[in-house]
Specification:
Blueprint (H helix, E strand, L loop, with lengths): L1 H7 L6 E6 L1 H7 L4 H10 E10 L9 E2 L4 E2 L2 E8 L5 H11 L4 E7 L2 E11 L7 E8 L10 H9 L10 H21 L8 H30 L3 H25 L12
Parallel strand pairs: 5-6
Antiparallel strand pairs: 1-2, 2-5, 3-4, 6-7, 7-8
Length: 262
């Protein structure tokens, strides 16, 4: 989808536009029969749109004992059916060893996914995808303010370019910030590593509280004893109060154009 490419503002030198055939996933990824059906039935095309590497973008590579961020890939997947999108995003992130910005498109909507990659500590020549993020669907023709702020923040000139790990981490952090913004109403990318950690922990806590509240509400529907219903309601209210306080921790200054937060 061209509009997301416009938001990314990547250089033409990095454009590849190469089709990736499904059989490569079948041959190289560990897919169950259900996974193969998802690839066959739900995916129309997979296109390797951009490769960011020193030859196409003047940014330094990054390597340490576990990570090799010598290049980044931008992969676009056109979907026939979005019902198994979370599973497909997980499979593609695991199958492609490069750090990757994954763009999934269905009709006029898009969703983005990232996952950091590292070498397996247990298995040689194996790359692990971890901390996968997947946005909710975005309709570029009807964006909420936080969604517009998110897309504006993805542009290459707005991102740190000391090396490819920093650049990719900035994309990854922005997907986390969008998940936070859907709860808090404010799109905010923290400046410091400590603040980013706090934001991540607050988001995880919000999700856990949401699950706990849903579990208690399901329990109360089955409960016939009045005293137990009162007890469950009291616990739900306490958790809801904790959730409201945690959501406040997700808020911060709105990211302005030109801010260079990693």
């Amino acid at each position: 989808m061209q509009i997301i490419h416009d938001y990314l503002a990547l250089p033409e030198t990095a454009y590849l536009g190469k089709r990736v055939y499904k059989k490569l996933f079948f041959e190289n990824a560990d897919l169950t029969a259900a996974d193969r059906r998802a690839f066959t039935d739900d995916i129309d095309t997979v296109t390797w749109q951009y490769t960011l590497k020193p030859a196409t973008l003047n940014v330094n590579t990054y390597r340490d004992n576990e990570r090799d961020y010598a290049e980044l890939a931008v992969i676009e997947v056109s979907l026939r059916d979005p019902k198994r999108i979370a599973r497909l995003a997980e499979l593609i992130n695991r199958a492609i060893p490069y750090p990757m910005l994954l763009i999934l498109v269905h009709e006029d909507r898009i969703t983005l996914s990232t996952a950091h990659k590292r070498a397996s500590r247990a298995e040689a020549d194996t790359v692990i995808a971890e901390d996968m993020q997947l946005t909710q669907w975005l309709d570029p023709a009807a964006l909420e303010p936080v969604e517009q702020a998110f897309l504006n923040s993805l542009a290459l000139p707005e991102l740190p370019q000391t090396h490819y790990h920093a650049l990719y981490s900035a994309w990854h952090q922005r997907l986390l910030a969008l998940a936070c913004a859907r709860l808090s109403g404010t799109f905010h990318v923290p400046e410091s590593a400590e603040a980013r950690t706090r934001q991540r922990e607050a988001l995880a806590a919000c999700h856990q509280l949401e699950n706990d509240i849903a579990s208690l509400r399901a329990e109360i529907k089955k409960e016939t004893r009045f005293n137990r219903q009162v007890e469950l309601n009291t616990r739900i209210k306490a958790l809801e109060e904790e959730q409201r306080a945690t959501i406040k921790a997700l808020s911060g200054p709105v990211l302005q154009a030109g801010d260079n937060n990693g």
